[in-house]
Each structure stands twice: as C-alpha cells, then as structure tokens.
C-alpha cells in the first residue's frame, strides 16, 4: 500500500508519500481499499499539531473516506469482503488502504457512490445533530447559516430546507452566495458587502423583518459571532459549531438574558460516542434523505490522492465550495 505519512506534525509540507506494508486486520477491524477521501478542516489542524486529538507518530492523516472492504478481522460479523462502506475514523484516509474499526464503518446502500460517501458523514451528521437535535428546528422558522458555502454550511442549508425552515445563507463572495441560492437558501448575505463591523446586523434585521433569526448556525466564530448573536430572535438558539475563522469569540452573556436566547454547543463527535443509538438513527434518516434526493454533498472538485498537498493549498485559499475529495 501507499499513503501520506506524517512523521513530524509541523505542517503540510512535512507529509511524505510512502510505500508501507499492507496491514492485516486485527480483532474488530476491517481493511478497506480506499476509493475516495474528503478533506476536512481538522485534517489540516492535525498535521499542524493543533487538533484536540493528537495521534501517536507516525500516522496517516485523512479522517473521512469510503471504499471496499478487503479483509475482516476476528469477531466482525456485520461486514463482509466486497462490501462498500464509508468511515470517519479520524486518521488513515489519505492512502490506498487502511485499517478501520468495524464499528465505525457505515455500510453503503446501493446507489451511494464513493465520492459522495467520503464527503457525507462529518458534514451531514454534524448539521443534522445541530439543527434537528440541539436546536429542535421547526418548519416555518428562520435559520441564519454562517459560512454557508462550505461543507457543513451547504449540508446545513439542505437539512434546514428538508425540515421546512426558511434559510438565510451568509458567504464571502457573490459566487458562493449564488451556490447557496442554488442549494435552497431563500436569501443570502455577502460578507464582502455586509461586514461584521459594517452593516451585517442591519442586513440580518432587514431580511427577517426586524424579528431576527430563530436559529443561528455558526461554524465560523471570530468577529461574526457577536453581531450575529445580537440579531437573534426572542427564544433564539445560537449553535456553536466551530471556529473556522480562527479566533474563539467571547459573547456578553447579558445578550442571552435580554433575548431569552440559548447558546447551544454542538459536539457531534462526542454525541456519536455517548449516544450511539441516537446517532445511528440520525444516519439512517440521512441515508434515506440521500436516496430520495433531499440531501446530496456539494463536491467542489476531485483530485488524485497523489495531489493531497495541492488540495490542502486549495482549502487554505478559502475558495472551496462544498467539499474537496481525493480519489484512488
């Protein structure tokens, strides 16, 4: 097998494409021939030693991937050789083969392609957990989605629409705003026109008739958090999803009091670990929605696995719409 190896987590440039022994699965594991792997923000942090999970060195990055089961270890009964699966295991995806815990593998229904599957679990499970479970989103409510043209953002647009909500999507360029409209947003806000310090609150107010959004989905953080939260509706729910802009914001808690609003943490990874049955039910619903066309990953482009460093550079340019996927 071949894989991108991180022997020194000082950044993308230190990754090397190496030939490694093809491993045999141990008890509870399967070996997967990887067909596609998506690039997520944690995949950048982990090779910079900035992610909360710090795997032992050396390791192969790549948190999310899809492929074909090649071999099964002792005790694995729900998967078989030749089966198509997707997996979100945190590492191992940027190569031709990997060992994965069988319990983390999601069997793919017929018609669920590897590229879509590799771009599915993280963004849709996160957004479904956030909007449906944590925010209890109801039909007819208004959702403001920040960073709406990215992977979790486009998934959130689709899920909110499927739930019957009205979506306002915020993104940084006209091109990204056009994508959000195409995915189902009723209104868009262009950050380059309506900045956090220059009219963002006024535009949110205008687009909600002065009421404010019932739910704010925020994977961005930074300077956008406070003006967005100041705009929230009475009994609104502010979803803390991530901090893609870098800085972790500090919100004045008196705002939550004045709006009767909730600040709601969204940590899908721990939810999946602590509440596996609930997460499995979520994934079953999402798979059904995919089969009926309610949700489908937005794929910015696919690149050969050998071009991982190019993919990282594209992601770093913040020009990606949806997801980048590497293929073997």
TrEMBL record:
Enzyme Commission number: 1.-.-.-
Listed CDD domains: QOR1
Record keywords: Oxidoreductase
UniProt superkingdom: Bacteria
Keyword RNA-binding: no
Keyword Oxidoreductase among UniProt keywords: yes
Residues annotated as domain Enoyl reductase (ER): 11-326
One Pfam family cited in the UniProt record for this chain: ADH_zinc_N
InterPro entries per UniProt: ADH-like_C, ADH-like_N, ER, GroES-like_sf, NAD(P)-bd_dom_sf, Quin_OxRdtase/zeta-crystal_CS, Zn-ADH-like_protein
SMART domains given in the database record: PKS_ER
Protein's recorded name: NADPH:quinone oxidoreductase family protein
Species of the source: Hydrogenophaga atypica
């Amino acid at each position: 097998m071949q894989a991108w190896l991180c022997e020194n987590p000082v950044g993308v440039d230190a990754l090397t494409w190496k030939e490694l022994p093809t491993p045999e699965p141990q008890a509870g594991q399967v070996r997967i021939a990887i067909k596609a792997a998506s690039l997520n923000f944690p995949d950048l942090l982990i090779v910079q030693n900035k992610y909360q999970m710090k795997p032992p060195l050396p390791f192969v990055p790549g948190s999310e991937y899809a492929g074909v089961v090649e071999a099964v270890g002792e005790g694995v009964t729900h998967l078989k050789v030749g089966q198509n699966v997707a997996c979100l295991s945190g590492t191992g995806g940027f190569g031709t083969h990997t060992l994965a815990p069988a319990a983390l593998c999601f069997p793919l229904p017929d018609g669920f392609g590897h590229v879509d599957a590799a771009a599915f679990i993280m963004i849709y499970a996160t957004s479904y957990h956030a909007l449906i479970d944590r925010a209890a989103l109801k039909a007819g409510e208004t959702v403001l989605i920040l960073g709406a043209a990215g992977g979790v953002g486009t998934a959130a647009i689709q899920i909110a629409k499927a739930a019957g909500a009205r979506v306002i999507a915020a993104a940084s360029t006209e091109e990204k705003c056009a994508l959000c409209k195409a995915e189902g947003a009723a209104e868009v806000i262009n950050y380059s026109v309506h900045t956090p310090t220059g009219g963002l609150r006024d535009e949110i107010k205008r687009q909600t008739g002065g009421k404010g959004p019932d739910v704010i989905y925020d994977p961005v953080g930074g300077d956008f958090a406070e003006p967005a939260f100041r705009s929230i509706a009475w009994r609104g729910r502010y979803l803390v999803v991530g901090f893609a802009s870098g800085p972790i914001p500090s919100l004045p808690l008196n705002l939550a009091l004045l709006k009767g609003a909730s600040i709601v943490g969204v940590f899908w990874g721990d939810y999946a670990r602590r509440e596996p049955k609930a997460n499995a039910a979520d994934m079953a619903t999402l798979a059904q929605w995919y089969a009926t066309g309610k949700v489908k990953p937005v794929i910015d482009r696919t690149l050969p696995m050998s071009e991982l460093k190019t993919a990282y550079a594209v992601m770093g340019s913040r020009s990606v719409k949806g997801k980048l996927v590497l293929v073997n």
